[in-house]
Specification:
Structural class: alpha/beta
Distance between the termini: 64 Å
Low-confidence stretches: 120-125
Mean pLDDT: 91
Radius of gyration: 33 Å
Helix content: 25-40%
Strand content: 15-25%
Number of helices: 22
Shape: globular
């Protein structure tokens, strides 16, 4: 430390000042007199400046605080903790230990509702064991998960069945609002029966009440990844957090979500139904599409999220993390033999995907919902991509309403988090019929096409085999601004398939041919002529598509194209937003 004193000071005075400051401040001191460039005196702090025999330590006040904290960490009434094992679930503090084995970065609001169950002069031994509200039943804070900092919340089911009340709601809202500031992911560990009805005046309709959850979810949507894991029956307001999240994982046989409980459903409609039938994991995974993944147990849920997060950036406008490249699980040389020559013969598109992407990198979402389309994260040469692939073993790969909706939401999510898109097109188009019209094929198909049209991430489209009707529009066809449209030699683009086309155009002429053999022969000739008009060579000749690729080279071709276009910039028209949801 440098100190400058007045011109009139003597050397002895400078030394005295240096010694005094060094002892008082505990640092080296140089004293300069007037404008001199050389120090007139120097001093180091004496060895006894900081005595080593300091015997200060925690007092009874700190010990009492630690006792209070330990009591809070013990959760709700013991009788509710005792029931958790038979429900197959962990106590919330043990759950946090599972998720964050190195401990929390910090916790906020641990003392919420403290006075209400400890009295005005809180002492742990005076706490009422039957009316415990530690942390108001909701834990919030920050932690490091698999090398990533994130915000988290977790319901304590031992506190009034994880229900939400005023102070817990306030903690939840603060956590969300801080995520908007930090740009870090949010993890919701949900196990809540909904709002505490007997306390609703404190949080239900308030400007900063439970309704603000979903406003904040909407603001966070597409800004930071929101991942929700369900551990129990989440009812009413609690059921909205999982459906607002980007990704929802339900634990089999344990978790459920519904707008109302079975008891309320019976009262309103007379219907008797179990919680699992009403809103269990399999129902939401197969019928509503609200569940992205089903976990076998709590450990498996964590494992799924640990894989999922590797494909995601921390926030919007950041690139997703790359990994070390791996060769594919199966060699690309087998692609040509895998794809049948007949457009109507089935094959499993998973087998194609495994010959294109890095081994052990496929992470499929909503596998049991709208299975005619596969939506999955994967990696090509270590680079994350989102795959939208028609599935020929499911109803010939025709696009049904559920599949269209699933694909649209997946594309929208990939676009929000800068994950490039790979379309593997092999579809006869959107399904026709009275039932699919009732199921809103036009509305949901519109959303699929809209998502493809509006996505600004790099897009690569592969014509694997058939691309008929408006299916090619939704699947990233030439008119939808993909960086490339490449085809395998089996690729075809047409208004409809050969059989339907021949029937539509030549039905009367064919019917006029009396000889069945001659009619069959003429029909085959017309079918072949039609296929020549729609095959990949004609499309490449007309420069409708960019290239025909040897199937064995498909992985390398995609690797090069995704790498080349990684920094592509696209823009949308200057508008507030579209009107298609």
């Amino acid at each position: 430390m440098k100190v400058r004193i007045g011109d009139g000071a003597t050397g002895e005075e400078a030394e005295a000042i240096a010694r005094s400051l060094a002892r008082h401040l505990g640092t080296d001191v140089d004293v300069y007199v007037g404008d001199d460039s050389d120090a007139a005196a120097n001093a180091e702090p004496p060895a006894d400046a900081f005595p080593l025999d300091d015997d200060l330590g925690p007092t009874e006040r700190e010990e009492q605080l630690r006792d209070e904290i330990a009591d809070i960490l013990d959760g709700g009434p013991q009788k509710y903790k005792d029931r958790l094992p038979e429900q197959g679930k962990l106590f919330v503090r043990d759950r946090l230990d599972l998720w964050f084995p190195d401990g929390l970065r910090f916790e906020d609001g641990k003392f919420a509702q403290f006075d209400s169950w400890h009295g005005e002069s809180p002492k742990v031994e005076e706490a009422d064991p039957n009316n415990r509200l530690p942390a108001d039943g909701l834990i919030t804070g920050a932690a490091n998960f698999e090398g990533r900092d994130l915000h988290f919340m977790a319901n304590d089911f031992t506190v009034k069945a994880g229900s939400m009340a005023r102070h817990g709601v306030e903690k939840f809202l603060r956590m969300q609002q801080r995520a908007l500031k930090t740009g870090k992911p949010v993890l919701y560990l949900m196990d809540s029966s909904g709002g505490r009805i007997d306390q609703q005046t404190g949080f239900f309709a308030n400007r900063e009440g439970i309704g603000k959850y979903y406003y904040n979810h909407s603001m966070l949507s597409g800004y930071v990844p929101q991942i929700c894991v369900l551990y129990g029956p989440c009812i009413a307001g609690a059921a909205y957090t999982p459906v607002f999240a980007d990704f929802t994982i339900m634990v089999e046989g344990m978790s459920a979500m519904a707008i109302a409980s079975p008891r309320m459903v019976k009262m309103v409609t007379g219907e008797e139904i179990s919680m699992q039938e009403l809103g269990g994991a399999h129902m939401h995974a197969e019928e509503s599409g609200s569940a992205d993944l089903i976990a076998r147990d709590e450990e498996h849920a964590r494992e799924l999220v640990s894989k999922l997060i590797t494909y995601l950036p921390n926030k919007a406008h950041e690139k997703p993390p790359k990994s070390e490249p791996k060769p594919p699980r199966f060699p690309p040389d087998g692609i040509d033999e895998l794809i049948p020559e007949s457009p109507n013969r089935p094959y499993d598109v998973h087998d194609l995907i495994e010959r294109v992407v890095d081994a052990e990198s496929v992470f499929e979402l909503k596998a049991d919902y709208g299975p005619e389309i596969v939506t999955a994260f994967a990696r090509i040469d270590g680079r994350p991509v989102g795959i939208v692939a028609n599935q020929p073993i499911e109803r010939s790969g025709a696009i049904f309403p559920d599949a269209a909706e699933k694909a649209a939401e997946f594309i929208w999510t990939c676009d929000a988090y800068e994950i490039p898109l790979l379309y593997l097109c092999d579809t006869p188009g959107f399904m026709a019929g009275s039932q699919v019209e009732k199921d809103a094929i036009l509305e949901k198909g519109k959303k699929f096409i809209y998502a493809t049209s509006s996505a600004t991430v790099p897009k690569q489209t592969v014509l694997v085999r058939k691309a008929y009707g408006a299916g090619i529009y939704a699947m990233g066809g030439p008119a939808y601004d993909p960086e490339s449209v490449i085809a395998l030699p089996s690729g075809e683009i047409g208004i409809m398939g050969p059989e339907a086309a021949i029937n539509a155009v030549y039905a009367n002429k064919l019917a006029a041919i009396e000889d069945p053999e001659e009619r069959k022969e003429r029909e085959q000739e017309l079918r072949e002529e039609y296929r020549q008009d729609i095959d990949a060579h004609r499309m490449a000749s007309e420069v409708v598509i960019d290239e025909i690729v040897a199937p064995s080279d498909l992985r390398e071709e995609l690797k090069n194209r995704f790498e080349f276009y990684a920094s592509v910039e696209k823009s949308l028209p200057d508008k507030k937003h579209g009107t298609i949801l």
